[in-house]
UniProtKB/TrEMBL annotation:
Its EC number is 2.7.4.8. It is found in: Cytoplasm. It catalyses: GMP + ATP = GDP + ADP. Keywords: ATP-binding, Cytoplasm, Kinase, Nucleotide-binding, Transferase. Essential for recycling GMP and indirectly, cGMP. It comes from Paractinoplanes ferrugineus. GO terms for molecular function: ATP binding; GMP kinase activity. The keyword Flavoprotein does not apply. ATP binds at residues 16-23. The lineage of its organism: Bacteria, Bacillati, Actinomycetota, Actinomycetes, Micromonosporales. Belongs to the guanylate kinase family. The gene is gmk. This is Guanylate kinase. Residues 9-187 form the Guanylate kinase-like domain. CDD domains: GMPK (cd00071).
Length: 199
């Protein structure tokens, strides 16, 4: 099999510090580039006001999450700021076997697991324009209590230091520009919309 035909080469991971704007970038891609398949993760975290179960995440209890781990149903999973997050295996593998470009929004620990199990995956780091800007965004988000913000700020410095583990960096200076750049990365090594099967 040549490289272009390897299903795993179609998996792209988007990672980056909490508050960098991964959700906004993903929202734009969801609206404008429907041929890109977005994996919906499972999480034990509380649902935010603007979120919909099954669209932003599948919200689950710890017990339900543990059953998914035990059953080998997660491609990767990690604990982040006291909550569990994981990628359901079946849907991602199904899309990949159909040759669809798939995008995962996961944390660093998850990105490392994907790197280990799918060496052909493309790992993209979404970086803030500056550390100060990242901290401003995290504090200003207003969706979390003080303790959660404190944990996320502490984790952000740690996450920023791992940029070098990624294949590419996209700077989220303007969300539309960053989304376009990411779509370009997905498109450059994958099927074009015209070639992609009907979705
Ligand atoms: P949030 O609670 O802000 O939605 O996400 C917190 C962190 O969990 C983010 O860095 C996000 O990328 C990560 N995350 C979301 N889904 C997954 C997943 O399925 N697996 C892993 N490893 N991390 C995830």
């Amino acid at each position: 099999m040549d490289d272009d035909a390897r299903p795993a080469a179609r998996l792209t991971v988007l990672s980056g510090p909490s508050g960098v704007g991964k959700d906004s970038v993903i929202e734009l891609i969801r609206a404008r580039s429907p041929w890109i398949k977005l994996s919906v993760s499972v999480t034990t975290r509380k649902m935010r006001d603007y979120e919909t179960d099954g669209e932003h995440y599948h919200f689950a209890t710890r017990q339900e999450f543990q059953r998914l781990i035990d059953g080998g149903q997660l491609l990767e999973w990690a604990e982040f700021a006291g909550n569990l997050y994981g990628t359901p295996r079946a849907q991602v593998e199904g899309w990949l076997s159909q040759g669809r470009p798939v995008l995962l929004k996961i944390d660093l620990q998850g990105a490392r697991q994907v790197r280990a199990t799918m060496p052909h995956a493309q790992l993209v780091f979404l970086a803030p324009p500056s550390v100060e800007e990242l901290k401003r965004r995290l504090i200003g988000r207003g969706t979390e209590d003080e303790e959660t913000i404190r944990r996320r700020l502490a984790h952000a410095d740690e996450e920023l230091s791992h940029e070098k583990e990624f294949d590419r960096t996209v700077v989220n200076d303007f969300v539309e520009r960053a989304a376009d750049e990411l779509v370009g990365l997905l498109g450059s090594s994958f099927l074009t919309p015209a070639q992609a099967p009907e979705h």
